[in-house]
Amino acid sequence: MSKQEQEKKLHIEVQDLTMAYGSFVLMKDLNFKVYEGDVFIIMGASGCGKSTMMRHLIGLNEPAKGDILYRGESFVKASASGREQMVRRCGVMYQSGALWSSMTLAENVILPLKQFASYSDREAESIARYKLSLVGLSGFEDFYPSEISGGMAKRAGVARALALDPEVLFLDEPSAGLDPLSARRLDEMILELSSNLKMTTVVVTHELESIFLIGNNSIFLDVNTRTLGATGNPKHLRDHCENPMIRNFLRRGELNAIGD
Ligand SMILES: Nc1ncnc2c1ncn2[C@@H]1O[C@H](COP(=O)(O)OP(=O)(O)OP(=O)(O)O)[C@@H](O)[C@H]1O
C-alpha cells in the first residue's frame, strides 16, 4: 500500500458479511475497506452477487450475518432514524438509469430534492440546473428521457443521484448498454466528479476498460468459493494477484490461451 493510501481515511468497512436470499447463501465472510475518495469497483463473474453487495451497502438488503460501518458507525446496529440518515448520505444510480419517463430531466433531479429536503421550487430548480451542468447536460433541462441518447440518460441518472450532495455515489453497471465512446465519456465524467466533488464512488461493473480506467480499489467476488477472491487496486490484481482465476478474468481470459 502506498503512503498516500495509508493516509486515506476509512469510509466504509465491511465486517464478516454473509449475504443470503432465504437459505441460499450467496457470499460469506466478506471483509474489506473502502477509503474516502476511492473509486471502488465491485467486480466478479455474472451472478456472483455484485448488485446484491451494492444493495447491502445502501441498506436495501439486510445482512444474514456481519456488519457494515460508515465512518465507524454500525449500519446494522443503528436505530431506524440513524439508518435513514446514513442512507441519505448515499446517492444511487441504478442499472437502467431509472428516470421517470413522464418527467423532464430537471423534474427528475428535482424529485429527491422535494421528497427529502425542504427546498423552495426556485432553489430546487436552480440546484437541478447545476447538477445537470455537472454531467454536461446544460440546455437539456426540459427534455424528456425519450428525447435523449442512452449515454445522456445515464448522465441524467448520475445528476439525480447527486441531487442531495451524497458522500458516497453508487453506480450499478453505469456503462451497460452504451457504445464504447459513450461508455468512455461516462467513465471520464465519473473520475472528474469523484475528484471535483471529493466523493467516494462505488461502482458495480465487469467492463474491464472501465475497471482499469476509473478504479483505484476493488473487491473481486469469487462465485466458485462464494467468498472474497481478492481486494485491492485492480491493475495490481491483474498483474500480481495470487489467484490465477482472478488474473485471468482481469486479462479477458488471455492466460488460458497462452497456457498460464
Ligand atoms: N431478490 C432475489 N431473490 C432471490 N435471489 C436473488 C434475488 N436477487 C438476486 N438473486 C440471485 O442472487 C444471485 C446474484 O445476483 P446479483 O444480481 O447480485 O449478481 P450480479 O453479480 O450483480 O449479476 P450480473 O453481473 O449478472 O448483473 C443470482 O443467482 C440471482 O439469481
From TrEMBL:
<protein>
    <submittedName>
        <fullName>ATP-binding cassette domain-containing protein</fullName>
    </submittedName>
</protein>
<keyword id="KW-0067">ATP-binding</keyword>
<dbReference type="GO" id="GO:0016887">
    <property type="term" value="F:ATP hydrolysis activity"/>
</dbReference>
<feature type="domain" description="ABC transporter">
    <location>
        <begin position="12"/>
        <end position="250"/>
    </location>
</feature>
<keyword id="KW-0547">Nucleotide-binding</keyword>
<dbReference type="InterPro" id="IPR027417">
    <property type="entry name" value="P-loop_NTPase"/>
</dbReference>
<dbReference type="InterPro" id="IPR003439">
    <property type="entry name" value="ABC_transporter-like_ATP-bd"/>
</dbReference>
<keyword id="KW-0813">Transport</keyword>
<dbReference type="GO" id="GO:0005524">
    <property type="term" value="F:ATP binding"/>
</dbReference>
<dbReference type="Pfam" id="PF00005">
    <property type="entry name" value="ABC_tran"/>
</dbReference>
<dbReference type="InterPro" id="IPR017871">
    <property type="entry name" value="ABC_transporter-like_CS"/>
</dbReference>
<dbReference type="InterPro" id="IPR003593">
    <property type="entry name" value="AAA+_ATPase"/>
</dbReference>
